[in-house]
Amino acid sequence: MILQMKNMTKLYEENKGVRDFSLEVKKGEFISLLGPSGCGKTTTLNLIGGFIIPDRGHLFINKKEITSLPPEKRPVSTVFQNYALFPHLSVLENIAFGVRYFKKFQKRKALVHAKEFVDLVGLEGYEDVNIGNLSGGQQQRVALARSIATGAEVLLLDEPLSNLDASLRGSLRRELKELQRRTRVTMIFVTHDQGEALSLSDRVVVMDHGRIAQVGRPSEIYDFPKSSYVANFVGKTNKLTDKRGESFFIRPEEIRLKKNEQSPYQIVEKMFLGHQTELTLSEMPGDKNRVDVLLFGKEGRSYEVGDRVDLLLNTDAKLRVGER
Ligand SMILES: Nc1ncnc2c1ncn2[C@@H]1O[C@H](COP(=O)(O)OP(=O)(O)OP(=O)(O)O)[C@@H](O)[C@H]1O
Questions:
Q1: What domains can be seen in the chain, in order of their start residue?
Q2: Residues with Cβ within 6 A of ligand 1?
Q3: Among 35, 168, 226, 313, who pairs with 39 as Cys (CB 3.0-4.6 Å)?
């Protein structure tokens, strides 16, 4: 275990902040902190980075207590959303700066060391280019290289992909995962994007109003959410009622449809996305309770807004909320 947080608490006015955050992280793990705006993700990251000192609680890295150590004395490095690079320095100089600062290397040694990390993030040939002349994705790679080159044992990433457009986000997500696999650096990644959290993480920490709502492997969180909050935040969930009047949750992809003009359910929205089609159903005209259905491939093409449909539910596809 590399990182241990025990009941870490930092409260602002109106009891906002983070409360009793306890988590143990193994060396080389990729952990995502996931939750809506204001749930306490950045505060948690800042507690680990040392930018905030907790009201109470303890933080250990490699069994050594570092709760009150300043950021520069911690074996931790942060990759900020805005990258925080020096615009007037080159790629190599930016990376070498971190190395000199944290490893106390002489300039020449730092530049040689930095070169390895330019290569690691695939920026060979860009060593002398000024940061201002790089694309957002390339700047992100420099910021990652700079953090990894410091030799930090834990990397903190605060929504590092959020300033990039959708297609670049996808490719950098894959690169980040690959980089983590190669370097085995422990990463704590803040995001409000569930796709990002599920696809990248060894474990996901879902947060709600400053508290941990659930910690688990991505598939555990998705298939066995501890609460309706988690079920709704991670993936879409429908709440339906069975013949006995008992309500249950079901994921949109677990519902199939069959056309039936007598059915009370009507398709009110259709979103064709090529490989999949998202349909929204309403039970009665004007009903606010909507049912989301996700159909794959050609299946979605045969339905149009206005069609009346029966829902075909597989009973064992009901989501088991709070059963583990
Ligand atoms: N310096 C501060 N002073 C007062 N309140 C703060 C401060 N920093 C954070 N908070 C409050 O603490 C709560 C948690 O904030 P935090 O920034 O950690 O959330 P977050 O999950 O990272 O949100 P976002 O995704 O919007 O960045 C919020 O209600 C926020 O308003």
A1: 3-230 (3.40.50.300), 237-319 (2.40.50.140)
A2: 12, 16-17, 35, 37-43, 192
A3: 35
